[in-house]
Design a protein that fits this description.
The complex is a heterodimer of chains A (392) and B (357).
Chain A lengths: L6 H19 L15 H13 L18 H13 L8 H14 L2 H12 L5 E4 L15 E5 L2 E9 L9 E7 L10 E7 L5 E6 L8 E12 L3 E2 L5 H12 L7 H19 L5 H26 L8 H4 L1 H20 L15 H12 L6 H12 L11
Chain B lengths: L12 H17 L2 H9 L5 H11 L17 H13 L6 H14 L2 H13 L4 E5 L4 E3 L2 E10 L6 E6 L2 E6 L5 E5 L9 E10 L1 E2 L3 H37 L1 E2 L2 E2 L4 H29 L5 H27 L10 H13 L4 H13 L4
Parallel strand pairs in B: 1-4
Antiparallel strand pairs in B: 2-3, 3-7, 4-5, 5-8, 6-7, 9-10
Classes of the chains: A alpha+beta (392), B alpha+beta (357).
Chain lengths: 392, 357
């Protein structure tokens, strides 16, 4: 048992760190460290394409599809250096980290040839059509319907909380394709073009004033019959496998961003004298300990011999980081005092720490609420009886 | 997707085997009956200690081989302490983690040759405590040290103060020991009074103190991890058997979520213990921070879990007959022993932001 990465991995770290830092100091300095996901969208698309041009856009993918076949360790290192360099959040996170790996795992050669090059090149931004007004935590309750008409699926329904749909080119949709089916059976996993008359996107304003997510209305929206991953009516398996990617390596790069946020809290405490308050010091120490344990938990997760086995560290990771960041947001505001409640400019937009305070309230909700996480930990991790459904 | 793994923050095959062996040993031998016999007597299961030291041969983990030790490192020691903690074993393991390591790290060759083989074989018991208020005069110490864990059973003491470390023989003239009725009966305290007692300084006090800190904090953190995991495992088992309102109580969300919260913190405690153990082994510059993090986080986790164990068992969990109180009392003891959580977190704060202005 050892800490740290191999010497070869450290060489890789130096290589990606040098490139990323040069980009953020040079041609993309204008989008370095911007906190809000919806700012400077055109520049961020250019950044995606710059990453692609240098083969840094999807390093975990196989080389034949534009990746580098990078190991998990290398993916972690890249994510760390990406955040350390202050590079902006990936506008195509959903394409690179979720859609791509799912297409690689479940797609035919034709699917791969159709969809992967656009993601790898940074030209096709993806969004996720999962949640609906009556299918949030209970995702299996989706009501959006898909019917086959000739060689096309025709889809009707409403999706919600669709992050970045207003900038996306593609969407993957879970829809009920089998008449009269209920629960996880009878759902198909479809890949649809956003640019069509049957899809309408309405932004939803969030508590921080931004509109990162949307309602997405599907009215006779169409895609080809074979624009589907997994068998007809068996898309639930695909949908769940995708969520496992969401809970895996893709979240690890956040830790360096969390590091930057905690450092900003410490700097603020130093600047206004609260760094000498013993209560604040205790809370900062707790945050520091939590962040370190997050890192070593992630390393334990990635050091497991079989990456498909969800062990304790992996199962508890989401609630751990989400709760940690929510607590950090509260600490940040307590350190800032009322100065944190006053915007810098004349419109409703927030700097790093107040924005994190507000945004972190979504961390404990999206991707499985803390309550759903606890159910999963208890049922899958501790083997406790499942919660009975009320309607099946 | 590339799954080639180059990280090794997981047990090696040999470490996994040690874990399995030592857990089986405690499961078989450190039974509730035997622990309770020890609690009613002097707080030690002497036979278990002897078997642990001689038959299992893991008492020398982390101690030099030329003096009867088993070599290996802090990870293996943490594995042993985690297993001992899981069974709240009534054993003087902490003395090996602190006093024996202090002698190994800071003692003379003669001190090592005299004490380490006897401590490793279980023939002698060691205790260690911080003693900043002792008066030293011509190689003799005067003052009272309290509380000293396993103090009433110790054949040799190591006392440490800033910049100083002494070895005092239990049978030296001027050493008086008064056992104390202690809430955690599996690791009872004593007051040790020194009245001009002869003390041998450990030559390298700084090394001895560092060894006491690393060994003691890892020992307590790993015991806490093992104990916390045991409270979770036992409560999960109970919640699947116990039926109320026509359902196993473990199917209710209010109950499940509390168990889930225990698991979330236990997984972090596991990362903390083995991070700190590796950092000490590797001489990492994170080692000091890791030790403070591990001691404070694991102690808090254990206490939260042991409290939940009582609550989630209902009335039976409050009885003397049930083992829940053994965990709860050990957890309480660990919270304060060798520095409380607030002190350790202030050390973390100092390391990352400097002293308070």
């Amino acid at each position: 048992m050892k800490l740290g990465f191999s010497a070869a991995d450290e060489v890789f770290r130096a290589e990606c760190a040098a490139w990323l830092q040069a980009q953020m100091a040079g041609p993309f300095a204008d989008i370095r460290g911007i906190p809000n996901l919806c700012d400077a969208i055109p520049r961020r698309k250019e950044w995606e394409q710059q990453l692609a041009a240098h083969k840094w856009s999807c390093i975990g993918w196989p080389e034949e599809w534009g990746g580098r076949g990078a190991t998990l360790a290398q993916q972690v290192i890249f994510a760390e250096e990406y955040a350390r360099a202050g590079a902006p959040n990936r506008i195509n996170h959903i394409g690179v980290e979720l859609a791509g790996p799912t297409i690689l795992a479940f797609g035919s050669e034709e699917h791969k040839a159709n969809y992967l090059p656009g993601i790898a090149a940074g030209t096709h931004i993806w969004c996720q059509g999962y949640s609906e007004p009556n299918a949030g935590s209970d995702l299996a309750n989706v009501k959006t319907k898909a019917r086959l008409e000739g060689d096309e699926w025709v889809v009707n329904g409403q999706k919600v909380w669709t992050s970045l749909a207003h900038y996306s080119d593609m969407i993957f949709v879970v829809a009920r394709s089998e008449e009269g089916s209920k629960g996880p059976k009878g759902i198909s996993f479809l890949l649809m073009d956003m640019d069509q008359p049957g899809i309408e996107v309405r932004p939803i304003r969030q508590i921080n004033g931004e509109a990162e997510f949307n309602e997405t209305f599907l009215t006779d929206a169409r895609c080809a019959a074979d624009a589907m991953l997994g068998a007809r009516g068996e898309g639930w398996k695909v949908a769940m496998a995708l969520l496992a990617f969401e809970r895996g390596v893709s979240t690890l790069g956040q830790q360096m961003q969390f590091r930057n946020e905690l450092d900003a809290v410490i700097d603020a405490a130093r600047a206004n004298g609260k760094a000498s308050d013993p209560v604040v010091r205790q809370r900062i120490a707790r945050a520091e300990i939590g962040l370190r344990l997050m890192r070593y938990g992630a390393l334990r997760m990635l050091s497991g011999t079989d990456p498909t086995v969800i062990d304790g560290a992996a199962l508890t990771y989401k609630i751990q980081w989400a709760t940690w960041r929510r607590d950090l947001g509260e600490l940040a505001m307590d350190v800032l005092g009322q100065a944190g409640e006053i915007a810098a400019g004349d419109h409703y937009a927030w700097g790093m720490l107040p924005n994190m305070y507000l945004y972190s309230r979504s961390d404990t909700i999206y991707g499985g609420t803390n309550q759903i996480q606890r159910n999963q930990i208890a049922e899958r991790g501790l083997g406790l009886p499942r919660e009975p459904r009320g309607d099946l | 997707m590339g799954h080639g793994l180059t990280m090794e923050f997981a047990f090696s095959d040999e470490q996994a085997m040690i874990a399995e062996t030592v857990q089986a040993f405690f499961r078989e031998n450190a039974t509730s009956e035997r622990t309770r016999e020890a609690m009613a007597a002097k707080g030690i299961d002497r036979e278990l200690w002897s078997d642990f030291c001689t038959e299992l041969g893991l008492s020398g983990v982390g101690l030099p081989e030329e003096h009867g030790g088993a070599g290996l490192g802090m990870v293996e020691f943490a594995i042993v302490a985690e297993a001992a903690g899981a069974w709240v074993a009534a054993l003087p393991l902490l003395g090996l983690a602190t006093a024996a390591r202090a002698i190994a790290a800071g003692g003379s060759e003669a001190q090592k040759a005299e004490w380490l083989p006897k401590l490793i074989s279980g023939e002698a018991i060691a205790a260690c405590e911080g003693a900043p208020g002792l008066a030293e005069d011509g190689g003799r110490l005067t003052g009272a040290i309290t509380p000293v864990p396993y103090g009433a059973l110790a054949d040799v003491f190591v006392f440490v103060a800033p910049g100083k470390a002494w070895l005092v023989r239990g049978d030296a003239v001027g050493v008086g020991v008064t056992p104390q009725v202690t809430m955690d009966q599996t690791r009872p305290f004593a007051t040790v009074t020194l009245d001009g007692a002869k003390a041998e300084p450990l030559a390298d006090a700084a090394a001895a103190i560092a060894a006491v800190h690393a060994g003691g904090w890892i020992c307590l953190a790993a015991e806490a991890l093992g104990g916390a995991q045991a409270t979770l495992d036992r409560t999960v088992a109970y919640s699947r058997e116990r039926v109320q309102f026509g359902r196993a109580i473990g199917s209710f969300q209010a109950y499940k979520h509390r168990l889930a919260d225990m698991m979330v913190d236990i997984e972090q405690a596991r990362s903390a213990v083995y991070w700190a153990a590796c950092a000490v082994n590797e001489g990492s510059d994170e080692a000091e921070l890791a030790l403070h993090a591990a001691k404070s986080f694991c102690a808090d986790t254990y206490h939260m879990c042991a409290g939940n164990m009582i609550q989630l068992h209902g009335g039976i969990g409050f009885t003397w007959e049930h083992d829940a109180h053994l965990f709860f009392k050990r957890a309480r003891s660990i919270l304060t022993m060798l520095g409380d959580g607030q002190w350790h977190r202030e050390q973390v704060a100092r390391l990352i932001m400097g002293a308070a202005a």
